[in-house]
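Supplementary Note 2. Why include the ligand at all?

Several targets in our set were suspected to adopt different conformations when bound, so apo predictions alone were not considered sufficient. For every target with a known small-molecule partner we therefore ran a joint prediction. The input for manganese (II) ion is given below.
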Amino acid sequence: MDLYEYQGKQFFARFGIPVSPGEAVTTVDDAVAAAERIGYPVVVKAQVQVGGRGKAGGIKLANDADEVRTHAGNILGMDIKGHTVETVWIELASDIAEEYYASFTLDRSAKKHLGMLSAQGGVEIEAVAAEDPDAIAKVHVDPVDGLTEDRARAWVAAAKLNPEATEGAVDILLKLYTAYVEGDADLVEINPLILKPTGEVHALDAKVTLDGNSAFRHPDYAEYEATQVRDEREELAHEKGLQYVGLDGFVGVIANGAGLAMSTVDIVNQVGGEPANFLDIGGGASAEVMAGALEVITNDPKVRSIFINIFGGITKGEEVANGIVTALGRVQIDVPIVIRLDGTNADLGREILEPHLSDKLQMQPTMTEAAEAAVAAAGK
Ligand code: GDP
Ligand code: MN
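The joint prediction is reproduced in token form.
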């Protein structure tokens, strides 16, 4: 679950990380009212979950109410890389002496947390990594040991920040690590982390991704959940209790089991198609679940064919086949369907499906052949 900058800053503030005072608003009048309360100059910041807002014109300094009115008016409704700005964050402007970068994320291969710190902040870290990788100081933190103050200090020294920033940076990095661990985040990033002319260190931007699976430990995350922009297709799938992830292609995919569903997405790609989604209908394949899956998939206008890939395990082939037949009777489907049915009692299942086959409903013996047939049937 990705947070907006203003939510990320509220999240940081809870762990004592210094951020600028501000207010999130959705109208120009409220933007002006907020600025009057905060005091000038303020920065008007577009709230979209995409980087590079500054370059896109989504971040503007305002010295008085008129400027807030102009900038908020321009930024609200603006399209930034396909994201429409519905909220702006008005915050007290900061004086900047230097811009740094700091983040924590999980390094799965090292089985440790990875902290990255650089004296080159304010620009995309990928660009720094490409042009001057030595400018990024990395630390691997064993989750059992945690981040000690001594290590944080050595890390800051390795990143060659201005010595004036050392104390503030060490303090923020320790708090950022705590926020990352206790907040169950997958990513916490401050870019830029700034040194002010007065010597204070401060988070000027916030990018936070929380692990949605930890929501049960954090009742307050419901507030973040409520503002998530969901894919319409995912919304419908969610209502039906299906494990669905929307993708951009044209072959609708239905499979039982997350592993098989991922393999199905892979094989569609491999044979030259583009999957429209990932959809795992779980262990069973009742008519109910199958009909729900077909509804979700056919609701996507980009879908030009459907690949149903079922491997019967505990659920027997004949149950799967009956589920498919019943579901097809319930849902109106205009695109061709290709079925691959294998596993326990696959023969019985195929016998049940046989009389229903047509040019719109075909069956293929293997996963690869079925994928190829589904891509061909899509007519692209
Ligand atoms: P991003 O472009 O989406 O990463 O948005 P940021 O919040 O990181 O802002 C981009 C840039 O705008 C920063 O790197 C700063 O240079 C500048 N900026 C943002 N807020 C302020 C501020 O309060 N004062 C000043 N002087 N510059 C700011
Ligand atoms: Mn930024």
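The longest helix spans residues 166-182. The mean pLDDT is 95. Comparable summaries for the other entries are listed in the accompanying table.
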